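Hey team,

Sharing the DUF4007 domain-containing protein run so nobody has to redo it. Sequence (326 residues) first:
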Amino acid sequence: MRPLLRLAAQHRNRDRYGDHRHRQSLPAFRDVRVNQTIRFNYGGHATFPVRYGWLPKGLNQLITTHGFSANTQTADALGLGSKMVDSLGYWLNMTGLRPAKDDEDLEIAKLIFAHDRYFERPGTWWFLHLILARQEGSVWSWFFNDFSDRIFDRITAQDAFQAYARTHAQRPPSAAMVQRDVACLLSAYAARPGVDLVDPEDIGACPFRELGLVARHDAVHRFERTRRPQGLPEEVFLAATSALQSQKGVDRLSLRELATLRLGPGRIFCQGLEAIETTVGKIGKKRQDGVIVESAAGDRTIHVPDRPLTYWLEALYSRVDAEAAG
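Structure output:
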């Protein structure tokens, strides 16, 4: 798939903003245990996957007006329909750009606004995917953490999500809710390999497809999750590992745990054990950021410092900027 950096052609006039040193952690997520019910949210996307150009508009509104209201005035200002602006508000929430509480700082939003305000860098979308896939009580968290099928059809996914929600949701969804949520997820992530080169001019296209996590095979009406995603930045992998390590209350994790635990990089980024081993091997050679990779009794482990999401996001931007400077 073509890189997101091609979007630069759409934004020739850029303002330069100073560096921001922000610190914000991923939300404190809970382990979902057997027979535990939690609050689920359905359908806030209004059936729209996030589209090219939406988050830059929403981010600019957040930063320049210190808030975002999904009303007619905002819809007119951004050139969106009423349902689309409602959907944009949902996506700002689910990707962590708009905090759940009004008194929280817009730390992630400010950091992206300073370094990638037009959302052109693939690494930005990997971080947004990490946040989205860790939002418990959503179709996004269910698909990347609890749905185990690698190859599946639409009906299988719908049935599995409904069965999971009946067990874990305080308010189980209707069949129509399930259909809409699963349809939105597949529209957001599934791309035809070698064919579905996402075009920003396609008004229905979603940037998450470019991550290459889910393939769509139209000839057989099936979907397939990758086991070796391409282009995953090490900083995003380390952010996911640090969050999982903190959540579990441990100071290191085995590679097998990384590949299999809920909310870990293996599930969230569709990485199999072999892909995890390759990623950790590359990280271990660099010996950076206090990361320690060790082998004992034939089992490799990794220790990642307990640092907030914004640390790893800023590290990504610093590295990419340094590489671009030569």
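The chain has 13 helices and seven strands.

Ping me if you want the raw files.
A.
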